[in-house]
Design brief:
It comes from Qingrenia yutianensis. The protein is an alpha+beta fold. The protein contains three helices and five strands. The protein binds zinc ion.
Length: 88
């Protein structure tokens, strides 16, 4: 049993691009149902990744990708926060 060399591949919920975690903004819902966007510490829970690109946020919102991935009914605040982080 050596150290694991496994590097998880992240996929953008907007465009489907794959990459490492540094390429994306991470959205996590912990077991208490609290949602963290771009947290500066590791949060354990159900996670989603999205490019730092407003087009991906718009795509994900249109297709309700975040709701499905995180099992949340209303993600409007999260999309708003993502847009704030990305700016334009
Ligand atoms: Zn993307």
């Amino acid at each position: 049993m050596g150290e694991s060399k496994f590097l998880p591949v992240r996929t953008c919920i907007g465009c489907g691009k794959k990459g490492g975690k540094a390429d994306f903004i991470k959205i996590v819902k912990n077991k208490n149902g609290e949602v963290f966007v771009n947290a500066d510490k590791e949060i354990f829970g159900r996670g989603a990744y999205i490019c730092r690109d407003g087009k991906c946020v718009a795509k994900a919102e249109k297709k309700n990708r975040l709701s499905r991935t995180l099992k949340l009914s209303d993600c409007a605040d999260i999309y708003q926060k993502l847009n704030e982080i990305i700016g334009d």
